Amino acid sequence: TRRAAGGDGAGGNRIDDASSSTGVAYGMYINASNDVVVEANRINRLSSSTGTTYGLYISNSNDILAAGNRFTSADRGTYYVGGSTGKYKDNLTSNVATPFTGGTDAGGNN
Could you tell me the pTM of the whole model? Predict the structure, then answer.
């Protein structure tokens, strides 16, 4: 599995103004991290020969804020799983089968 940006166990970080396109299953991947801000990223044309693609995958993490991100051509957009918490706001999707799962919608998402 490949990913464009993210980390395991890195708390209090910021992922912003990143771009990812073509050939990755996870645009951004956050695992076991707390208090991370994910803002103003552009993720497009994800692909996986083995399964589902994710714009922003958040697992086992708390208080993850996602704002102003853009996702195109993915199976899932912003995806909170494994008891993860956080809010997402002002994110835009196109050709994303399931734009948002989990977390708390703070408004302005499409």
Answer: 0.88
